[in-house]
Amino acid sequence: MTKTFANESEHQAFVAAQAVMPQGFRAGTTRFEFVPAEVTKPAKMNLTLLVADEPTTNFAAVFTRNAVAGAPVLIGRQRLAQERVGAIIINNKISNVGTATGVADAEAVCHAVGQALNIPAQAVMPASTGVIGWRLPSEAIVQALPGAVSSLSAGSLASAAQAIMTTDLYPKARTATVGGGRITAIAKGAGMIEPNMATMLAFVLTDLDVPRAALRPMLAEVVDRTFNAISIDSDTSTSDMVVALSSGKVPCPDLAAFEQALHDVCARLAEDVVRNGEGVHHVIRVTVKGVPEAAWAKAIGKAIVNSPLVKTAVCGNDPNVGRVLAAVGKTIGAAGWPLDPRQARVAMGGHAVFANGAFCLTPAIDDLVRAHLEDTELYTSKGNAEGMFYAPVKYPPHDRCVEIEVSWPGHATDVVIVGADLSHEYVTENADYRS
Amino acid sequence: MTKTFANESEHQAFVAAQAVMPQGFRAGTTRFEFVPAEVTKPAKMNLTLLVADEPTTNFAAVFTRNAVAGAPVLIGRQRLAQERVGAIIINNKISNVGTATGVADAEAVCHAVGQALNIPAQAVMPASTGVIGWRLPSEAIVQALPGAVSSLSAGSLASAAQAIMTTDLYPKARTATVGGGRITAIAKGAGMIEPNMATMLAFVLTDLDVPRAALRPMLAEVVDRTFNAISIDSDTSTSDMVVALSSGKVPCPDLAAFEQALHDVCARLAEDVVRNGEGVHHVIRVTVKGVPEAAWAKAIGKAIVNSPLVKTAVCGNDPNVGRVLAAVGKTIGAAGWPLDPRQARVAMGGHAVFANGAFCLTPAIDDLVRAHLEDTELYTSKGNAEGMFYAPVKYPPHDRCVEIEVSWPGHATDVVIVGADLSHEYVTENADYRS
Question: Which residues of B touch A319 (CB under 8 A)?
């Protein structure tokens, strides 16, 4: 089951194989320099265009629940009422949030895309990621747009997966087939990730013919169990969105099979997002079982993966299991749920560390849990001469997770939350640079 | 108003001046070596004894809301029903949480303290802080107890404030006088700090005669606005407690004046706890105004000080104000409150950065906010040759805070939350060591 990568090329080949474009779509990218309005130093931006051969009625999208929503989110919500969507225009570098001209700037870009593709501006979905508070350079984007249009091609989403990145170390794409059709999704996101609707940005393309009325509830349900069940740093972005487009080129043989494939693609892509999170040394997968309410189980799992003390202990390969139980107790105590932590069984890497109301720690158990942490580590870090920390690899060496299970007897719920540790690399990424 | 300290001795003199013992109490400490049951390496533990000349009926205590409560918390809750309390016995190094014998171990210690002081074991309040999951070495504590008893003396709480520390860099004590009487409190706590009842451990002694019926609601109210309004890392400990004892030696002239003094002592001590938090470079004080419900204001303030992205940006003296608004929006959006972030005004260091629905960022504002961050920094860090980060000072050079204000027009609420940034020193403290 475990997948390992020996080097960056092996991982690139894997992403390329996953990035197969479904029928009926083309993608194009371009890169340009501009001077942001807020500073004097030039910056570089990638523009990515995803285009359906024919605008489709079968599209779905879910957006961040952050009450401060970016202009693309505000516009995207309106687009849901449109009959058809034919293109998605994506920029990195600036997230277009909270500026006075944000919506007008994004609409100007959509207008230009519509003209270039000969579709209505209202059939263009905008998406932005990057700095919050800066203005979208709509004129520079419109100038650069022909470069993206002329590069449009079918066959692969690999360049698009690369171009939408910001602090991501590597591109992320996942694919699955159902009958003769295909679902392929790409995502970006490495910080400000606790999606409360979707990861930073994820785009799902399928040639399977799934009508809008089925696609929309299905996407919402799948996102809730995948992208909404991950957290890198508990910070829900202002710009999260997942957009799904169906070109309808291939008849869908089985809606249930489609939903399962959509779930698999989204679950694997969501885990990719965590694995490539800022400074992530370990992916932590928490399974919470036997809790009366799924919402409680989700909160308990989130509390564990968001606890700075659990995160730092995992980072240090330190089997500090007391911090896991403390996070469980903090959550239950604050909420006042009738759920007794003393009845819980806590296991790490399959080894019970708390059971029957007490910790069952021995030097032997400690060694086993430590070995599990070492086995699931992506890399060990070392500061450079300036005291800065950078990830030494630009690919995930393996896909193993730190497995934490918290279970109560009796109930049937089973919720999985995927999070990450907290490292010097996260601090370097977010504190050691000056904006 | 600002207080600065040029070196450790200046700060020690300040703590000594604050640690004046109210009449009617004595304190003693001792230190000993023992071998924990779970490992083979010897460890050192401090034992601290706070004793009232006469057991008092006038005592109050508030405890953690973590559903996984330590044995001292379980016992302390029972002690509230006792007629009198005469002593508090405190150990560091092991928090006595989640072991099969925890309550019996703590009661054995209380029994020995009662015998040594000739008071009932039920008049002894236990308190423990340190590793979760290890057994309390009750026999070694009982053996060391005579050392603490023989050192009992009146006059100062300075040695006790020192002895209760774990990862704290320096002792914390605060005092205030009302009429001819005095309130003095000491606290420890530097990690796993988001008290949901009290900080890790805080002890308030007063010679003012305040009856139990007045003292208990007053302590609960004051703790809610002080210790319960701080967060270092969002992790509510399993062992938090605040205990207040009155010796009744001085008539209390005015209960309202006493409550105000109690608030001032607790507020200053709570801020001391944050300032001495693990790896703290900046204390962040968030004032939230104009929110219909105080609970919403508290949640918004907590979300800002607990956002890893806000914390790391502040650590880096980076005026990344977008992250502050994103944290506000995340909280409001997840809760679904009818509160519009676009109506909010956000200021940092007194400078408006978001108003009238849009960011008002300019290079000049950016410079002013950056200067405020630099001015409020406690120290800048530098990794050593091994890539480990240690605080270069063992005293707080000043008491300035990063001031963040989020306000809506109209309503009268005004909630203050005190938190801290997130630094390499926090990661070194919690990940770079192996347990």
Answer: 435
Q: Is A41 on the interface with B (CB under 8 A)?
A: no
User: Active-site residue numbers of A?
Assistant: 199
Helix H or strand E encompassing A253: none
Contacts of A40 in chain B (CB under 8 A): 363
Contact between B66 and B240 (Cβ < 8 Å): yes
**In angstroms, rounded to a whole number, what is the distance separating the alpha carbons of residues A87 and A366?**
53
Complex-level ipTM: 0.83
- Compute chain B's Rg from CA coordinates: 22
**Which residues of chain A lie closer than 8 angstroms to B424, CB-CB?**
387, 424, 427-428, 431
Residue B90 DSSP class: E
User: Is residue A65 within 8 angstroms of chain B, CB to CB?
Assistant: yes
Burial zone of B271 (CB within 10 Å; 0-12 exposed, 13-18 middle, 19+ buried) = buried
Q: What is the mean pLDDT of residues B243-251?
A: 94
At residue B401 the predicted structure's pLDDT band, cuts being 50, 70 and 90, is: very high
Instruction: Report CB contact under 8 Å: A309, B383.
Output: no
What is the per-residue pLDDT for B197?
A: 40
CB hemisphere CA count around A420 (13 angstroms): 28
Residue B53 has pLDDT above 80, yes or no: yes
Of B269, B299, B132, nearest in space to B198 by CA: B269
- Alpha-carbon distance of B15 to A32, in angstroms, equals 58
Angle ∠(B202,B208,B212) on CA atoms, nearest 5: 70
Model confidence pLDDT, tens digit, residues A372-406: 999 999 998 888 887 788 888 889 999 999 999 99
Q: Do B326 and A132 touch (CB under 8 A)?
A: yes
What is the Cα–Cα distance from A27 to A148, expressed in whole angstroms?
8
Residues B161-170 as b/e (b if ≥16 CB within 10 A, e otherwise) read bbbbbbbbbb
Are B281 and B379 in contact, with CB atoms under 8 Å apart?
yes
Mean of the per-residue pLDDT values of chain A: 91
Q: Please indicate if any CB of chain A lies within 8 Å of the CB of B317.
A: yes
Nearest residue to B76 via CA among B198, B158, B171: B198
Per-residue confidence (pLDDT) for residue B193, from 0 to 100: 59
Contact between A58 and A258 (Cβ < 8 Å): no
A124-128 β-sheet, strand order: A25-34, A43-56, A85-91, A124-128
Residue B201: strand pairing partners: B188, B241
| Least Cα separation, residue B265 to chain A (angstroms) | 26
Task: For B271-289, give the DSSP string.
Answer: HHHHHTSTT-S-EEEEEEE
Q: Which two tokens stand for residue A9?
A: 């090329």
Query: Is A358 within 8 Å of B98 when comparing Cβ atoms?
Result: yes
Phi/psi at A401 (5° precision)? -125, 150
Q: Does A104 contact B at CB distance below 8 Å?
A: no
Residues B66, A358: C-beta atoms closer than 8 Å:
no
- Which secondary-structure segment (H or E) carries A208? strand A201-209
CA distance A366 to A321: 9
Nearest CA in chain A to B304: A235
pLDDT band per the 50, 70, 90 thresholds, residue A1: low
pLDDT tens readout for residues A191-227: 665 554 444 688 999 999 999 999 999 999 999 888 8
pLDDT at A234 over 60: yes
Q: Which residue of A has its CA nearest to B323?
A: A132
| Structure-block tokens of residue A241 | 């969105």
> What is the separation, in whole angstroms, between the first and last Cα of chain B?
41
SS3 of B30, please?
Answer: strand
Q: How far apart are CA B136 and CA B129, in angstroms?
A: 10
Torsion of CA A270, A272, A273, A279, to 10 degrees: 140
Residue B199 has what DSSP assignment?
A: -
Query: What's the pTM?
Result: 0.86
